[in-house]
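Lab meeting, item 3. Inverse folding demo.
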């Protein structure tokens, strides 16, 4: 209510009353906030309809880099909700805030002993009927104040959380858009699906997090150390049937039903472990000198992601009859009996991946505030500087293999997988596939060009250094408060990576790896004003702010 900005706050009491497993889900009930979900679980947070890549996430005011290699947005399902004291969503900004939140910013505040004291223990479990398994969860927090009686000025707060979740999902979806303009062999036009995918997932997600915060408060200032570490792993097994209708010829088609001859079904297994970690360390303080307050901080944050030993295996069955008799919410697929025999699916491709991304940031801040309330101007003035040095890298090694001739999915087949939508056919055993691949990798046919391209074009190194300065002021008169000012930011950006050139005329036609780099240096002035007018139990707010993504 008293904030100078348009904000919404979720407290630990709110979080504890609801079964929200992570920070993203704890924010899903905030007005103007939406979630991008993965397997039904909240992951990315968007504000006011803006893409999550264009929002900013901070922990205790410190920018959090993104663990994922291809995004600036932070996957907030990495952070357990039990480590949090408050979550604050800012829909407008003031000049002393990081300006990179186009939609807004999310600040995750961990527990301080000066917020509350005591011990809290939580133990719970949930049951997933789809995979018939339990998912335990444990959490604890403890905080206390120390010092001479009546002057307890040292605070210690500790918290940890662990959640091991087993669950699954079954779905059906189209690939390449819906509906598509299609045509039968005799030229009749209709709208339908070029391809439909059946997917069966079995997933384990484990979160572990710890927070350790220390505070010291004296008459002349306060000092703090904030530490938060979160570790998230996502083991996913996905069995998929890709019904490639358009590989064949449509012999009949309407808006609700169609039949093809000569089509293809690809049956695949994705065996992927994704591990993400976020570490933040923030040390700082503030001191008081008459009407002046000086605050300062240094923060280190690191996010990393690894995909060790991912294996995607694909089998195919060609030249069969496929179709559907209903394409509504739950499509009624018409399969070929050949799909029920695992020996009919022959090996198409193996894809092995080892990848790692790392994003680190070092941030320095120094601010000065002068209280002008005793002068003719009823307000204060604040100015400061910030420097942030950020580096992000990704390196991946992808290998494609083919063969051996005659290998079918029968060697790895299991009974029909758990799939409650419609008939699926035989499933695949992920552990048997990986064991075979590891034992026979050296004898498989290595696909040189595809492996070189896939292993090269996604690798990069990025440096982004931001220097900022701001000046702002607040003004109060009766029920009116205005905060206004301007922020200047300069960004120096350098990126390097690789591109692939293929010369079919003067060269051999083989892919050639060439280094490529980009750089840019730009600066912006970003003004803002926030107005709050209060009357009785009603608060009116208005703001005009400018930000940069």
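The presenter then showed the designed sequence:
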């Amino acid at each position: 209510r008293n904030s100078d900005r348009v904000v919404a706050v979720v407290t630990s009491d709110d979080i504890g009353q609801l079964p929200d497993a992570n920070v993203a889900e704890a924010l899903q009930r905030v007005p103007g906030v939406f979630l991008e979900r993965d397997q039904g679980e909240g992951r990315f947070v968007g504000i006011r309809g803006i893409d999550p890549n264009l929002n900013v996430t901070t922990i205790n005011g410190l920018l959090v880099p993104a663990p994922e290699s291809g995004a600036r947005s932070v996957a907030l399902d990495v952070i357990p909700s039990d480590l949090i004291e408050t979550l604050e969503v800012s829909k407008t900004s003031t000049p002393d805030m990081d300006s990179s939140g186009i939609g807004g910013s999310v600040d995750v505040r961990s527990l301080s002993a000066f917020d509350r004291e005591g011990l809290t223990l939580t133990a719970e479990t949930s049951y997933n009927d789809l995979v018939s398994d339990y998912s335990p969860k444990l959490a604890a927090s403890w905080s206390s104040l120390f010092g001479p009686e009546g002057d307890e000025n040292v605070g210690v707060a500790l918290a940890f959380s662990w959640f091991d979740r087993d669950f699954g999902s079954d779905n059906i979806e189209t690939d390449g858009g819906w509906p598509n303009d299609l045509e039968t062999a005799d030229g009749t036009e209709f709208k339908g699906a070029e391809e439909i995918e059946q997917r069966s997932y079995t997933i384990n997600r484990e979160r572990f997090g710890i927070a350790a915060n220390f505070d010291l408060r004296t008459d002349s200032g306060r000092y703090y150390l904030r530490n938060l570490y979160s570790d998230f792993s996502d083991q996913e097994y996905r069995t998929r049937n890709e019904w490639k209708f358009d590989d064949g010829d449509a012999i009949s088609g309407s808006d609700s039903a169609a039949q093809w001859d000569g089509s293809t079904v690809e049956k695949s297994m994705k065996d992927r472990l994704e591990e993400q970690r976020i570490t933040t360390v923030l040390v700082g303080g503030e001191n008081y000198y008459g009407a002046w307050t000086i605050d300062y901080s240094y923060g280190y944050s690191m996010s990393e992601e690894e995909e060790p030993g991912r294996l995607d295996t694909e089998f195919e069955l060609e030249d069969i009859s496929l179709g559907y008799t209903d394409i509504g919410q739950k499509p009624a697929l018409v399969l070929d009996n050949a799909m029920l025999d695992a020996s009919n699916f022959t090996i198409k491709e193996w894809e092995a991946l080892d990848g790692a991304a790392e994003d680190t940031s070092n941030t320095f801040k120094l601010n000065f505030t002068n209280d002008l309330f005793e002068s003719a101007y009823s307000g204060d003035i604040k100015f400061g500087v910030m420097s942030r040095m950020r580096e992000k890298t990704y390196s991946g090694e992808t290998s494609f293999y083919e063969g051996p001739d005659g290998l079918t999915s029968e060697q790895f087949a299991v009974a029909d997988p758990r799939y409650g939508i419609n008939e699926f056919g035989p499933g695949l055993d992920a552990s048997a596939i990986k064991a075979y691949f590891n034992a026979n990798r050296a004898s498989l046919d290595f696909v040189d060009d595809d492996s070189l391209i896939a292993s090269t074009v996604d690798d990069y190194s990025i440096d982004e250094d931001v220097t900022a300065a701001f000046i702002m002021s607040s003004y109060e008169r009766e029920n009116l408060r205005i905060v206004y000012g301007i922020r200047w930011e300069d960004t120096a950006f350098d990126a390097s990576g690789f591109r692939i050139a293929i010369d079919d005329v003067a060269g051999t036609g083989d892919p050639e790896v060439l280094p490529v780099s980009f750089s840019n240096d730009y600066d912006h002035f970003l003004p803002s004003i926030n107005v709050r007018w209060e009357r009785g139990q009603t608060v009116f707010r208005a703001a005009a702010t400018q930000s940069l993504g």
